[in-house]
Amino acid sequence: MKNRIVPRHIQLVVRNDDGLSKLLGYTTIANGGILLDILKNSLSKKIVKGKETGSISQEF
Questions:
Q1: Sign of dihedral through CA atoms 35, 37, 40, 46?
Q2: Looking at the domain assignment, is residue 12 inside a domain?
Q3: Calpha distance 24→43 (Å, rounded)
Q4: Alpha carbons 23 and 14: distance in angstroms, whole number
Q5: What one-character DSSP code corresponds to residue 57?
Q6: What is the per-residue pLDDT across 4-56, written as a single tens digit (0 to 9) for each?
Q7: Number of other CB atoms surrounding residue 3 within 10 Å
Q8: How many alpha carbons fall within 13 Å on the CB side of residue 31?
Q9: Which residue range forms the structural domain that includes residue 19?
């Protein structure tokens, strides 16, 4: 089985890692697409709200 690293995956890793972001922050990654700048505070609130409301687990 072959695994493929897509340019978008590289872009996500660079954006989320402090060291790589400093090293490759101003580099253009071809076919990486556009990443939206979503505040981490917004994401954590949605996750916490989902757990507080008694969300159903998808485990079988």
A1: negative
A2: yes
A3: 25
A4: 9
A5: P
A6: 777 888 888 888 888 988 888 787 777 777 766 666 665 554 455 555 445 55
A7: 4
A8: 4
A9: 1-35
CB distance 52 to 45 below 8 Å: no
The number of distinct structural domains making up the chain is 1
Q: What is the pLDDT of residue 26?
A: 80
Indicate the DSSP class of residue 55: P
What residue type is 12 in one-letter code? L
DSSP string, 7-59: HHHHHHHHHH-HHHHHHHTT---TT--------HHHHHHHHHHHHHTTPPP--
pLDDT of residue 46: 46
Residue 11 in domain = yes
d(CA 6, CA 25): 18
